[in-house]
Specification:
single chain, alpha+beta, five-stranded mixed beta sheet, 11 helices, 7 strands, 9% strand, globular, BTB domain-containing protein
Length: 359
């Protein structure tokens, strides 16, 4: 993968007819192909924060993954082909068939910085991009990402269920560590405020759903999406090394989205090798030159077979909690800063725009 694709700096191109990712990746499989539902779409600049969730709507057509016509094709093959086609769809807004609208929390009323590689913020002072039924409330910063449902559904069990028509309330896991204990009722169920639940927005069309997604850590969402497209973790690792994103934030996003085991293994190894070098020295990850041709494997490769789904065991509601008993006020390890700072918005691609709009 070239440097341009790794960092998402793609030149502007003219509008062309391009088939959907799922259609291209399955050519030659012997299966009938679903119709191409991609369309060019100009996003609205106002969001609806009414308590309606993923309600049945004439403007929403459920999108199961894989499509019924491809049920006999191995999912692993589909995902592998999607990764091969990623350079043709990454940052190609004209072929995007869905939009994620992510609210950005910011402390003290200060606006977060914009992504380094994002387009200019979009505004709609005349309200032409807003439906008459949408309310005008306080302005909040939003990230708007135009993406492809095939890539999102192939990797995120949560988004796959939402695009298939499931209710977000039905998808809440009562054992998830993402919900503070104070939100649990006497019946043992969680009560989540409506504005913290994902939902389809009124501006959705049958060919282009617009999903309001209050993800835990918006700062690292670009990097997670890059992994969904290319299947590599080098961009995430580089951002972690330079402190652009935080391990805790991306780990919460992984749990929230229901991402598969391989990225959890990567984050688990990162935690052990980099954030906690006292337990796994740098040399543990490598064999010596004399042993390089032997059958000796990395000593920690087998440590995560039973812990792939336990990323959040090291986190509590106040932040990181070290397994070896160290307190948060001790000297931090390499690769992690404990200083309070604004969210980092170094984007890996110009797939979004940050704007301060009425939601």
């Amino acid at each position: 993968m070239s440097d341009d694709n790794s960092h998402g700096f793609c030149p502007d191109i003219k509008m062309v007819e391009v088939a959907s990712p799922i259609e291209n990746c399955c050519r030659g499989s012997g299966q009938s192909l679903p119709p191409n539902t991609n369309s060019t779409w100009a996003p609205t600049t106002h969001c609806d924060t009414s308590p309606s969730l993923m309600e049945s709507s004439d403007s929403f057509e459920p999108r199961p993954f894989p499509p019924p016509s491809l049920l006999d094709v191995p999912v692993e093959y589909i995902i592998d082909q999607l990764h091969n086609l990623a350079p043709h769809y990454w940052d190609k807004l004209e072929t995007a068939d869905c939009t994620l609208v992510v609210p950005v929390p910011y402390p003290g009323g200060k606006h977060a910085s914009e992504p380094l590689a994002s387009p200019s913020p979009s505004y709609d002072p005349s309200g032409l991009g807003r439906r008459a039924t949408e309310p005008t409330l306080a302005a909040v910063p939003l990230i708007r990402m135009q993406l492809h449902t095939d890539y999102l559904s192939a990797h995120s069990s949560f988004l796959r269920s939402l695009f298939s028509g499931a209710s977000p309330i039905d998808l809440i896991n009562p054992t998830s560590s993402l919900h503070p204990p104070g939100l649990r009722t006497s019946s043992g169920k969680f009560t989540i405020p409506p504005n913290r639940l994902p939902r389809l927005m009124p501006s959705s069309t049958p060919s282009h759903p617009v999903l309001y997604l209050p993800i835990p850590d918006p700062a690292s969402l670009h990097y997670v999406v890059h992994w969904m497209y290319f299947g590599t973790t080098d961009v995430i690792e580089d951002a972690l090394v330079h402190g652009v994103i935080q391990w805790e934030g991306i780990a919460r996003n992984v749990e929230y989205l229901g991402l598969p085991t391989d990225i959890k293994v990567f984050l688990g190894r990162w935690f052990e090798r980099w954030l906690n070098p006292d337990r796994h020295g740098i040399n543990d990850a490598y064999v010596s030159d004399e042993e390089g041709e032997s059958d000796t494997a990395c000593s920690d490769d087998d440590d995560y077979d039973d812990d792939d789904d336990d990323l959040m065991d090291d986190l509590d509601s106040d932040g990181i909690r070290w397994k070896d008993g160290r307190d948060d006020d001790e000297e931090p390890c390499r690769g992690r800063t404990r200083a309070t700072r604004c969210l980092s918005w170094a984007s890996t691609a110009s797939t979004s725009a940050v704007s301060y709009e009425s939601v």
